[in-house]
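tool=predict chain=A
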Amino acid sequence: MQYPSPLFIPLRREFFEMFREGSKVAELRRHGPRWNETTCWVGRDVLLSCGYGKGNRLTGIIARVAVVAIEQLATGDRQHFLQCYGFAPRVIVITIGNLRPLVAGGDVPVVDSTEQLRRYIVRKYSITDQVQVVEFDGAVNGLFRVRLQAMNPGAVPMDYYLTPAERKVAYAQHQ
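tool=predict ok
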């Protein structure tokens, strides 16, 4: 199975620095062919870049995706969005978790992929392989939460918690 490359998100310096400092956790883009639910899904790896250069980059994982009307944005977010993109009737809000600096000297993300975590959980708990990651949270009380849902209609999502050591094992097993 071929896995997609990380979603590349170039940012203006001020917004990149906000992500680096932790004061910004979501990116807003004009909903359309490039930025939609097909290209931005929960669990996809992302690569945040300060502009288009390779010097300042962060990696992370999409934790949540929402499409909202521009009127639903908080006033400050709406003003920033309008300054960057102008009016758009719909905005995609991409919440990014597990942000880390990029490995020095390359474009290989530091974070492990949600597919590796999914496989590890399927094997550890002997559950069906027909599940998908619907949400992923970084460290919460020292544990990493992965929400899986069976791919059949009406299935109820289940949360699984991994220790940092288990996450490293999951990553190492599937490289």
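Strands lie at 7-11, 26-30, 45-50, 57-69, 90-101, 131-140, 143-150, 158-162. The two ends are 14 Å apart (CA to CA).
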